[in-house]
Every structure is written in structure tokens, then in C-alpha cells.
């Protein structure tokens, strides 16, 4: 059987000395799409941060895209992040560069050298997110939805095994949120695995997926019909 993309077993999620989620058990296999919901402060971002190596896994078992989170060393974090695409609420694009250069920056930082391969890859991901014609624009010239498309394109650059999206529609209006969600759905259908933290009830109801909830210091899967954020 294929190894899960993500596996947590009795994993305790901490912010410094503060236990945020205890004994988290979660397995996500290739091709899965999960929402992560829960009230403000319930631990969604802390869980995400533990998954991409920003917070240390102190207790329990955790593996993600082949990395052991418990044994993860500082110098391995960039390699982990090459295999995970991360999308943030506030896009985190470099505002002094244009779209092409934002993407080129990531490819070069992750070891890409050949000019033609870099150009082809950037065209490919921009095409996927419907932004190929806007490669020359500075990111501040783009709308929020367009910026999030670029951030999603950036997440796709290294063909990640898992996409972690932390409130990707949190800064977008309802119509733009739906467009971004349609894009994430397309990416999911193309075979990618996605874990998406969200507060957006509109999306959860419209695009039904498996749903995990953080509540009372625990993480559990909830049935669709009882889902409330
Ligand atoms: N940098 C930090 N240092 C210490 N405690 C933190 C830090 N960031 C978050 N916390 C605490 O950890 C707990 C979980 O916060 P977290 O950001 O994971 O929640 P969340 O569910 O993502 O909330 P939101 O929906 O508002 O983003 C909260 O009690 C919060 O106050």
C-alpha cells in the first residue's frame, strides 16, 4: 500500500509551552481534499505550522511527504517545503517584483538553473491558474484574487505532493473566493492532495469535502451535515 502523504499519531501541537491540540490522529492519503475548520484560536494555523516545520513536533508521531516531523532538522526544512506547496491568506508575494520574477525567485532558490526550463515551468503554472498573460505585472498591480492565483501558481512550481492552504480565501470577497476555490478544485482533480484551513462557510457548503474540526483542544472529523465553522 502507498504511504500516506500525511500521518499524525497522538501528536501534540504546541505554541511555545502552550498545548493547543492534544493527541491529534490524522491520515491523509494521496488525492485527498480536507477542510480544516474551527473557531478563531482553536489551533488551525498552529497545526499547519507544525506540518510545514515552522513549529516543532514535540510529542507524538508525525510524517509528511516522507519527512519525519519529530526528527526534522532546521537544515531539512527547505527540502520539506519543496515537496509541499503553501498558500497563505495574505499571499506573501514579493511586492517589488513582477509576477514572472516572483516565480523565478522561488525556482532559482530551489535549485533550478536552466533558463528555458525556468521559463517553461513558469508559463505552465501561470497557464494553470489563468494568469499567463499577466506575467509582466508588478504584484501590487493585481487584485486580491489575482494575487492569490499567483500564490497558488507559486505553490505548484515544484510539483508538490501536498498543498497546505491556510485561509486562502480569507482576504477575498465572496465571488473571488469562489473563483479561487474553483481553481483549487481543478488542481485537486488533477491529482493533488490538499489540506485547507478555512472559515468560509459558503465554500464548505458549496464544495463538499471531508472536514476536520479543531475544538476544545482536539481535532476530529465531522460529518458534512453537522458542519458548522
Ligand atoms: N506565536 C504564538 N505564540 C504563542 N501563542 C500563540 C502564537 N500564535 C498563536 N498562539 C496561540 O495558540 C492558540 C491557537 O492559535 P492558532 O493561530 O493556531 O488558531 P487558529 O485556529 O488558526 O485561529 P485563526 O482562525 O484566528 O487564525 C491560540 O490560543 C493562540 O493565542
From TrEMBL:
SUPFAM superfamilies the record matches: P-loop containing nucleoside triphosphate hydrolases
Any one Gene Ontology cellular component term annotated for this protein: plasma membrane
Keywords: ATP-binding, Nucleotide-binding
Annotated ranges, domain ABC transporter: 6-229
Gene3D superfamilies linked to this entry: P-loop containing nucleotide triphosphate hydrolases (3.40.50.300)
GO molecular function (one): ATP hydrolysis activity
InterPro entries on file: AAA+_ATPase (IPR003593), ABC_transporter-like_ATP-bd (IPR003439), ABC_transporter-like_CS (IPR017871), ABC_transpr_LolD-like (IPR015854), P-loop_NTPase (IPR027417)
Keyword Nucleotide-binding: yes
Alphabetical list of SMART domains matching this protein: AAA
Main function: Part of the ABC transporter FtsEX involved in cellular division. Important for assembly or stability of the septal ring.
Family of the protein in this entry: Belongs to the ABC transporter superfamily.
Protein name per Swiss-Prot or TrEMBL: Cell division ATP-binding protein FtsE
